[in-house]
Design a protein that fits this description.
With 754 residues, the protein is of the alpha+beta class. It has 18 helices and 27 strands. InterPro entries: BphY/WalK/GraS-like, GAF, GAF-like_dom_sf, HATPase_C_sf, HATPase_dom, His_kinase_dom, HisK_dim/P_dom, HisK_dim/P_sf.
Length: 754
């Protein structure tokens, strides 16, 4: 932008939010600007017309100390004031006259780039209020305004009172109180005027009317006056080439030509604004003043308006905080009941949805959903479960780990247009750091009408070839769809508190489970050691019983009766069965004590070896073995051999009486694991008892029908689970059985258990 503050045809085209409005390179003509640097305050920048107050040309003035340049203007007071300027904000030095007798208000500030800046605003001629008002003259009116603000009972009354007070102080034709929405659209919430300018009360203006960098400037410099929209900018000259002077805090700062065009389109030759700032310095809104003819307002009057804006902000903040505190207090009772039920229930969905109305009322929602690793539970009016799961997947994909709230889900999530009847609004709380678990609240679409101050530019309109403001401010109504009633700050805070409580309960439960798991592991280790010791110690006695029974039968058999020989056979057979049981127990206990030694190998070769070893058990029966090719797996081959040994031995055993017997072994390769299947056409089992199959000593058939000790399938389960897989079975009586187990693809085995 050139020094005169206008855009040329060769200037690069910038968006409104990129325009460098803090360094325009010029000032408004109703005053002069001088910028000094160094301890001796030597002149480095000056507005082009400042020769009128310096008494010499700028070329000669540059580099001279302030004591030589302004000798006729109470130089000592100015020099002292410029030497102790605050880091931010203006400082008024009072009234000064030049040698020629011209009167100015002297205002100083420290610029962001370190210059001591002196602004000399020419005093306006008397007439309307605010033109040449002094602090003493303004005080009674300001005191009355502050008293009326103290009596206002609502934000609307506060805004109306503030607009009337500022118009009384300044004499502007129209004063608006303009509040920013969360998306930075602005709404005129109060107005005071004399009828010379049209009313804007209740109108909404798009965020683009006041772009981001302008809002930032309003936060650091709360006052701005444009005395005459048709002013000719006065360029700032510099002692030497260098960066443009930063005018962030300057009262005389020239404004963007785009904004001046905006004012002309609006029909307001003069304007003034005062920022309304929250306690943390963020922008709440503006007090915006307009006049039908050019108008100047004294610095004292502007400060008085700033005081009114500050008092308004304090009162609004107090009322908003009080309203939020009351709302939070009402929700705290609901929150306490939900947490108590959840802690007692021991599960998330059971506690939160024991009384669904409480969960809905906590967020003022019409529907809610609780998604955990175990399932999805719905309450009230919600989208179908499949749609709720899609929303949860979308949240997971976005990496949402804090509370997410929106009153227009369709604008964020693809495909959410179809859910507006139940889920135009979404309040989502993630409740797990590991699993995709959420508590979701829903609100339906509420169709509303918004009246804009002129039609806002639509997102799909082509960008202009250069910066242009809006040209029309006529009321323009828009029907808003796909949006719900927005979530209040109290509701969002309640959801955030509930999230913290849930995470705390889940963490405590996890710690309790970890402690219990540790105790169980110690008990399991002790039991495994005990079973190993007992089974090992019992093997020898049973062998002795079998051995001595055989010796007795061989040496004394002729002297025994038939009954005696039968008794000896029964003793030997029982001892042999007991020995096999002890061996099985010893093998089972060793499964938890032996370390896994996984390697990559072909399981089909292992199956072939097991099949060959089982040939003596086939008793010359016809068995149709159907063994499919298998991919290489990563496992402990010795342990996997036992898995196939048990499964195939059972298949051979339980297909007796089938001619031919059919035994099938196959494997499917999945993305994360291999799934093995062992099927037969044998006696099968009733699925009602399937849960007993993999327990120790659990049998579904009588020993007289099929031999065995009931530990083989328990061994299968333990081996598969130690590899990180799972095992299950299916069967029908008289039609056969199928056993399935999985092995993860190559990686670390599951955690060792005993």
């Amino acid at each position: 932008m050139p020094p005169d503050g206008t855009l040329s045809d060769t200037d690069p085209i910038l968006g409104c939010d990129q325009e460098p409005i803090h360094i325009p390179g010029s000032v408004q003509p109703h005053g002069h600007l001088l910028a000094f640097a160094g301890d001796d305050l030597r002149l480095m920048h000056a507005s082009a017309a400042a020769e009128a107050v310096l008494g010499t040309g700028l070329a000669a003035a540059f580099g001279q100390p302030v004591s030589q340049l302004l000798a006729g203007m109470a130089c000592e007071a100015l020099r002292d004031g410029l030497g102790r300027l605050p880091a931010a904000g203006p400082m008024q030095f009072g009234r000064f006259r030049t040698a020629a007798g011209a009167a100015f208000q002297a205002i100083g500030h420290r610029s962001p780039d370190g210059h001591a800046v002196l602004e000399l605003e020419a005093e306006a001629e008397g007439g309307e209020p605010g033109a040449d008002a002094t602090l003493e003259g303004l005080y009674p009116g300001v005191r009355d305004a502050l008293a009326r603000l103290g009596r206002a009972a609502s934000v609307e009354q506060l805004a109306t009172t503030s607009a009337a007070a500022v118009r009384q102080i300044t004499g502007f034709d129209r004063v608006l109180v303009y509040r920013f929405e969360p998306n930075w659209d602005g709404i005129v919430v109060a107005e005071d005027g004399n009828g010379r300018l049209p009313s804007y009360l209740g109108l909404r203006f798009p965020a683009s009317d006041i772009p981001a960098q302008a809002r930032r400037l309003y936060e650091v410099n709360p006052q701005r006056l444009i005395a005459d929209v048709d002013y000719v900018p006065v360029p700032i000259r510099s002692a030497r080439p260098g960066p443009t002077l930063d005018l962030t805090f300057a009262s005389l700062r020239s404004v963007s030509p785009v904004h001046l065009e905006y004012m002309r389109n609006m029909g307001t030759p003069a304007s003034m604004s005062v920022s309304i700032l929250r306690g943390d310095g963020r922008l709440w809104g503006l007090i915006s003043c307009h006049h039908a003819v050019p108008r100047r307002v004294s610095f004292a009057a502007r400060n008085a308006c700033d005081l009114v804006a500050q008092m308004f902000a304090v009162r609004v903040a107090a009322r908003e905080e009080m309203a939020q505190a009351e709302a939070r207090a009402q929700l705290k009772g609901l929150e306490g009941r939900l947490i108590a039920r959840m802690a007692a229930a021991g599960c998330l969905e059971g506690g939160l949805l024991a009384v669904p109305r409480d969960l809905l009322d906590l967020a003022g929602a019409t529907g809610a959903a609780v998604l955990t690793e175990g399932g999805c539970t719905l309450a009230g009016r919600t989208p179908p479960e499949a749609a709720v799961r899609r929303i949860a997947a979308w949240l997971q994909e976005r990496g949402v780990d804090e509370v997410l709230e929106t009153h227009c889900l369709a604008s964020l999530m693809p495909g959410a247009d179809a859910l507006v009847d139940t889920a135009s609004g979404l309040l989502a709380v993630p409740v797990s750091r590991i699993h995709p678990s959420f508590v979701l609240w829903f609100r339906p679409e509420v169709i509303s009408t918004v009246t804009w101050g002129g039609a806002p530019r639509q997102p799909d309109e082509p960008a202009p070839d250069r910066l242009h403001p809006r040209r029309s401010f006529a009321a323009w109504a828009e029907t808003v769809r796909r949006c719900s009633v927005p979530w209040t700050a109290a509701e969002v805070a309640a959801a955030r508190d509930l999230q913290s409580a849930i995470l705390g309960i889940v963490l405590r439960a996890a710690e309790e489970r970890a402690e219990l798991t540790g105790r169980l592991e110690r008990v399991n280790q002790e039991l495994a050691a005990f079973s190993y010791s007992v089974s090992h110690d019992l093997r020898a006695p049973f062998r002795h019983i079998v051995g001595f029974a055989e010796l007795l039968r061989e040496r004394e058999g002729e002297a025994l009766s038939d009954r005696g020989r039968r008794y000896i056979s029964t003793i030997a057979q029982a001892a042999e069965n007991a020995g096999r049981l002890v061996d099985a127990l010893l093998n089972f206990s060793q499964m938890g004590r032996t370390a896994l030694v996984p390697i990559e190998f072909d399981p089909a070769r292992l199956v072939a070896e097991v099949r060959q070893a089982l040939e003596p058990e086939q008793d010359a029966r016809r068995i149709d073995w159907r063994i499919a090719p298998m991919p290489a797996v990563w496992a402990d081959p010795a342990m996997l051999r036992q898995v196939f040994q048990n499964l195939l031995s059972n298949a051979v055993k339980y297909t007796r009486g089938r001619d031919p017997a059919v035994i099938e072994v196959t494997c499917e390769a999945g993305e994360a694991a291999f799934t093995f299947h062992v099927r037969d056409n044998g006696t099968g089992f009733d699925m009602a008892y399937a849960h007993k199959l993999f327990g120790v000593f659990q049998r579904l058939h009588r020993t007289e029908e099929f031999e065995g000790v009931g530990i083989g399938l328990a061994n299968v389960q333990r081996i598969v689970e130690r590899h990180g897989g799972r095992v299950w079975a299916e069967g029908r009586l008289g039609e056969g059985a199928a056993f399935h187990f999985t092995l993860p693809r190559r990686g670390e085995p599951a955690a060792e258990t005993t």
